């Protein structure tokens, strides 16, 4: 994330800072990937990218934001990388060649480059940071930092872990990759298999961050979803016999089909049951169902991603919310809880059960999760509980739970949505008096 500058309190300064934050989130992964190809050190690459950002923060407020800020940041970062290589007196031919031949992109060339070598660099970066010399948690945390531009705090919330723990994990991971000289490449088949689960998890979490942004003023980050889906499709070409790869692609295609309907014209969130299903992207739905079928045809039991894709397919195939097969969705969540048990899966299962068999049963399942340490700061627990209490007519309790959820939410749009839902929990006589 960009370092925060002193703000003068003006709306113009705040708007400019939000714009720069958004640019950094969109461009940082491509820049870090390209720099990693140059310097072969992911920690140094991230530092160089941050240096370019600091220069932008100093210059853009007076000079204005360039027409193509991504190209500006890329060129500035690569110049910094060349300076570092030269200052380090790396005089052998290899580094002389890097310094001489590293391209400095003109803005008109940037789109072409993104479609070619930098796109490939992002996938290489994922495989590098998912190397087995790192623990699974370290791989995912580091890649979320580099690929999604998340802060340590945001990653800690994704892991439901303490922020200092995540910070130490990321620092150690970068140091280990440098010490072990992990190559910047897509591995051969025998090495690919052992990294595949971590790569799938990273792409999955990358998409989720785009689908429901952890923090900030935007409910979704569509470009992050598009990049995750692109990487998933590339991975399906690399590993066509892996059912979970196709399962993940199916899930991302199906979820992407309703991305445009998740916000209204003013950017406010629109929940699943309120979305206009006629505007769901039918091409993406067909692609998702086809990918799910490819996963099934490989003849192995459905894994976590394929099961989630099957749940998404139930929504995609229902013409209206009332026609959704909630009993099947509840059964699929039951299967998912056995394959990949977690408190969040159980919370989702409780929602499905409430839709299939009534809010009282769903509330009972949610209350059983109240003592889960991992959900202590998870805002969707009180959010779900508040919804169920509202359906049961326990409006005072529902309002308290939704207000608690709003106080825990970090995304501005989501926080306002929860506050509005809490305000709706007013008994009818009180509404009449107003």
TrEMBL record:
User: Per the record, where are the segments of Basic and acidic residues compositional bias?
Assistant: 411-434
Pinpoint the DUF6596 domain residues: 195-295
Region annotated Disordered, chain positions = 407-434
Q: Which Gene3D superfamilies match?
A: 1.10.1740.10, Winged helix-like DNA-binding domain superfamily/Winged helix DNA-binding domain
Query: Which Pfam families does this one have?
Result: DUF6596, Sigma70_r2, Sigma70_r4_2
* Residue ranges annotated for the RNA polymerase sigma-70 region domain, each copy included: 30-89
Which GO biological process annotations does it have? Answer: DNA-templated transcription initiation
Q: Which InterPro entries does this UniProt record tie to the protein?
A: DUF6596, RNA_pol_sigma-70_dom, RNA_pol_sigma70_r2, RNA_pol_sigma70_r4_t2, RNA_pol_sigma_r2, RNA_pol_sigma_r3/r4-like, WH-like_DNA-bd_sf
Q: Where is the RNA polymerase sigma factor 70 region 4 type domain?
A: 125-177
Q: Name one GO molecular function term.
A: DNA binding
NCBIfam families assigned to the protein according to its UniProt record, in alphabetical order: sigma70-ECF
| Protein name stated in the entry | RNA polymerase sigma factor
